[in-house]
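Final report, Chapter 2: Outcomes

The project's central promise was a pipeline that accepts a single protein chain and returns its three-dimensional structure in a standardized token representation, suitable for archiving and comparison. That pipeline is now operational. To close this chapter, we reproduce one record exactly as it appears in the project archive, with the input sequence first and the structure output second.
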Amino acid sequence: MATVANPVLPGCHPDPSICRVGEWYYLVTSTFEYLPGLPVMRSRDLVRWQTIGHVIDRTGMLDYEGIASSGGLYAPTIRHHDGLFWVVCTIVDQNDDTRGGNFLVTATDPAGPWSDPIWLDVDGIDPSVAFDDDGRVWMHGTRLAREPEYFHQTEVWVREYSPVERAFVGPEHVIWRGAVRSAVWAEGPHLYQIDGRWYLVAAEGGTEYHHAVSVARADEIAGPYEGNRANPVLTHRHLGRATDVIGAGHADIVQAADGSWWAVLLAMRAADGHHYPLGRETFLCPVSWEDGWPVFAPGEGRVPREVELPWSVTPAPAAAWQPDDRVPGTVRPDDARWTALRALPSEVSEDDGGTWTLPARAETLADATVVAFRGLRQQHADVDAFADLDLAALADGESAGFAIRQSEKDHVTLAFARTSAGLTLRATHRHGGEDRVLHDEALASEPGRIGVRARGYRYELVHADAVVAAVDARELDAVATGGFLGVWFGVFATSHGAPPRGQVTIAAFDYAPA
């Protein structure tokens, strides 16, 4: 029996959904405005996860143009039925509610390719899908209540879907409007047919400090549903701010091959009880069944810090991150962690056989469009992330450097700028849309390695092994800035609105947990 530490997917891996096919578990998480979208991860033991592909991995599958940070892909669900993998998801444009919507994609191989999106004629968010014993398909999701009793009350709907007609058939049923009055946002619903009953597992309270998991059951999928008198069956909000893990919710359950039950869910590690720059992470929780109801974290009542897996005998490596074959150090060009903003990494950069060329773009990190940025999630509170950049081809008036990114309005850059007089180095903190210069100097020598040395809530900006500025990570997390994301580290290049002419070469990018 192996003991493993939570979270099993550190860094910004929110809204996990899971299914099992034979000996393999498959999991997807939200990716918002980053591409490729919706990583498909697989594992044999629920701990060592390997990214085998992405659901949204082709140009033109979805339109991301103009979608601001914390818009994009929300709360996917993955299921397998009759030889086919299904993923349903929502794409959201927070500035234009006429764009986006819910869609379905399918694949015979979870590594892809996935089909082009099939749009679902229903509003709301967080769609899910279930298959009954007769093979019928039931879509469900959440939306703001049509006749709300209180602000941000939502309702869960269910309706039969015909794969042949690619359309809903039969009547819609509203089955749930929340377990706790005024708790808001009954969301992330999943339906399961277990031992002749239908079970609804839903989040509640909003995906932050007051997040929770609630359960209801019914004899028929259309209801009526009976809420568990123990609701919420899992939450950390009653623990107060002294706990280091907050916001537990958005669970999806799965049965292991040995008959045991498990949940994956999101929660946030907040050392001060408030701030979580790593974002919402994926945690693992045991589930038992008592009196016809699921019990989350039996005997403990909170997401465990460590989980014992009876079928695993090999401990996971300390400070592991997916996939499990990665080692601290240089991140390769083919590493599945690389992402770009509203475009695929291959659309904004070129792999030169161990190095990457990043052509400058007129857009900056403050623009909600495709920008010259290539980055990855911060997955450890204590980590060193550094880039070696070749600026020989950077044109006058252009800048390139290292970015600590939360959103268009909130990010930190340590940038080299090419001028007629030579190179300068400037550190800038953009907070709430306003820029503040932290460091500015002319360089008399060749540029050195730049990056960040993160230690808890302190980000030290480093150039040539010297700390040139520092930023409090609590000013960059979702609590301080709004939105739903953790922090990304990466490299950017911009011509600041002028026609771009130059480029930067990323000779190496290192990510090493301290």
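Archive annotation: The helical segments are 345-348, 478-481.
This record, like all others produced under the grant, will remain available to the consortium after the project formally closes.
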